Amino acid sequence: MTDRDSQPDVEHGRSRAPARGPATLLACVPNVSEGRRPEIVERIAQAADGVTGIRVLDVHSDSDHHRSVLTIVGNRVAVEEAAFRLADVATRSIDIRDHRGVHPRIGALDVLPFVPLAGTSMESCVDVAHRVGRRIADELGVPVYFYADAALRPEFRLLVNVRRGEYEGLLASIGRDPTRAPDAGPRLLGPAGATAVGARRALVAFNVHLRTSDVAVATTIARAVRSSSGGLPGVQAIGLPTSRSGIVQVSMNLTDLDVTPLHVAVERVRVEASRHGVEVAESELVGLMPATTTLAAAAAALGLPSLGARQVVELALERAHDA
Amino acid sequence: MTDRDSQPDVEHGRSRAPARGPATLLACVPNVSEGRRPEIVERIAQAADGVTGIRVLDVHSDSDHHRSVLTIVGNRVAVEEAAFRLADVATRSIDIRDHRGVHPRIGALDVLPFVPLAGTSMESCVDVAHRVGRRIADELGVPVYFYADAALRPEFRLLVNVRRGEYEGLLASIGRDPTRAPDAGPRLLGPAGATAVGARRALVAFNVHLRTSDVAVATTIARAVRSSSGGLPGVQAIGLPTSRSGIVQVSMNLTDLDVTPLHVAVERVRVEASRHGVEVAESELVGLMPATTTLAAAAAALGLPSLGARQVVELALERAHDA
């Protein structure tokens, strides 16, 4: 239910000097259904990295999820090209029919979200998602569903609705059920499955680990924390097993960090775990987080009413350069 | 006992692209004995800001301390000139003979530390301190003591030894006691008092507030926390009153953040306060903190084993630009 991509934004509304690089930046956070063969993940990352102006900021592989999350950044033209090239490599290298992992998925390139960074509008990211998605459908023959802000159907604003039943469920329904027809590409699934292409604001993907073998505890806590069950707004959460003995996880996506900051969600999981008499183990950040999330968590730890980017040397210098 | 300046360093050993600006950066963190007349503080800040290539990153005034901490950054030549110009304005605008604040001080421009940032060595900062200090002594007629890494006498490596007895004590002894003779400038104090000019690594200045009117509690906790009384290494701390009713403060300088991170010291104050049955109120950062301090505090709040700059979008982008 969570989508394991995470690419937070630079503060909106703050201008950056053009001299620093391209005036408008966006991020792309592909989630590919391969978390066990590093050489395949590396090949996918290299496909993106080969495009001039692209930076691969992070590659996060999870063996239990059998999934990797890449974070790439660049200007519009570079990101479009990089996203298509990595889609090409991922859909040719990963066979979703053999894929067994604990994380929900519908395809080799499972989700491909574009996230606005400094100077880029959401509208621009939606355009990028539609162009890249149609190219993936046309040139690679992969069915594409547009989700989040790029959704063409209201129900697909929620990724969970695109991914309902996962690859296996989609395989059974894509050809017959008109509500499962893709937005672009063929109405049939090949070895690469389907891809959800979206545009969205930054989110943070974060796993809290619990010292218990009982995944039902993680599921119960996930339900208490997530917004869809009446928990914290802007929090998606599922309980998952891990391959580590005696450890399960609450796997979260935080989609509205202004409303529910990460440290608040983590604290809520801790409180729930304590109610169940379960100890919290080390947590895990998937991909990156925005500076505002880091600052808010640090402020909480230090008892500060707030902590601004202007109060951290490196971030203040960055602003000074931009001014 | 604490010196209220704070200017942490960018990670050493990490190169920054020359295209970003001057290849070597240093910070200067003047502490001036004026925290109540904003127009005077503003005039001092403008004296520095008027130098090409200088950025005034922060100005923090404290009325109770009757003191302001400025954080300015630039290349060597610019910082030297800015430091001298603000020394000129501060020593002409502030009369230390009338100064009454809770923070220890010996002069109008009380301390003037230089801190290495990216690409700058401590040796270079020591040279800057000596050049600027001698110019202040020669051209402004203010006695100067070199401290920390710029100290010419071993006992003055500790600022507390320079500032012993404060302005009033120094006034009585500077002319007669050879151990109190300045390193540069006249052996007598004018209305501007004396100035301690130093070079040092980054430090963080941080105040934890306690909900009690009893400053003795703050002093006891400060003693439990600070290294000189057997507490945490790299922590200087004093208990001080504040003008807020029912609030006192533990005022800390953290001088070795690798050994004792800020959040560890704050937690220790919390534990001690709880032992005394005293509640902790909001804390206060004086000046700036380095990103590593922020990251460590955020990691603690989130239960992460660690959190690197590569995992925070804005800091990762900064690195990508530098690569």
Structure description:
Two copies of one chain form a homodimer. The first copy, chain A, is an alpha+beta fold. The first copy, chain A, has three domains: 179 residues, Formiminotransferase-cyclodeaminase, Chain B, domain 1 (2-Layer Sandwich); 86 residues, Formiminotransferase, C-terminal subdomain (Alpha-Beta Plaits, 2-Layer Sandwich), CATH 3.30.70; 34 residues, no CATH class. Chain A has nine helices and eleven strands. In chain A, strands 1, 2, 3, 4, 5, 6 and 7 form a seven-stranded mixed sheet that branches. A four-stranded antiparallel sheet of chain A has the order 9-10-8-11. The longest helix of chain A has 19 residues. Chain A is globular and about 55 Å long.
CATH homologous superfamily label of the largest domain in chain A: Formiminotransferase, N-terminal subdomain
Task: Assign an overall shape of chain A.
Answer: globular
Number of strands of chain A: 11
Question: What is the arithmetic mean of pLDDT of chain A?
Answer: 90
Instruction: Supply the CATH architecture of the largest domain in chain A.
Output: 2-Layer Sandwich
Strand and helix order of chain A: EEHEEHEHEHHEEHEEHEHH
Q: Helical content of chain A, roughly?
A: 25-40%
Give me some keywords for this one.
4-stranded antiparallel beta sheet; homodimer; Formiminotransferase-cyclodeaminase, Chain B, domain 1; 33% helix; 7-stranded mixed beta sheet; 323 residues; alpha+beta; 3 domains
